[in-house]
Amino acid sequence: xxxxxxxxxxxxxxxxxxxxxxxxxxxxxxxxxxxxxxxxxxxxxxxxxxxxxxxxxxxxxxxxxxxxxxxxxxxxxxxxxxxxxxxx
Length: 88
Hints:
This protein has one domain (2-81): Arc Repressor Mutant, subunit A. It contains four helices and three strands. The chain has helices spanning 2-16, 25-36, 41-53, 73-81, and strands at residues 22-24, 57-61, 64-67. The longest helix has 15 residues, at 2-16. The relative contact order is 0.23.
């Protein structure tokens, strides 16, 4: 699916930026803007819902999302090597 592939690219961008376990909504929105070239809040919200539907992320608090390592195989490998480098 094209949407799932794009979601994977968004997650890969977050992982490359140093996020391993959690990501703030602002950082998530920034990653979506970079990958999708969008500024519309409705489009960003749709991509966040898609990421949740494909189980790449789960809301942990109103502005904090937890990354799901089971949905992201390369994240499991990175978690074994080192922990999250970005602080929320």
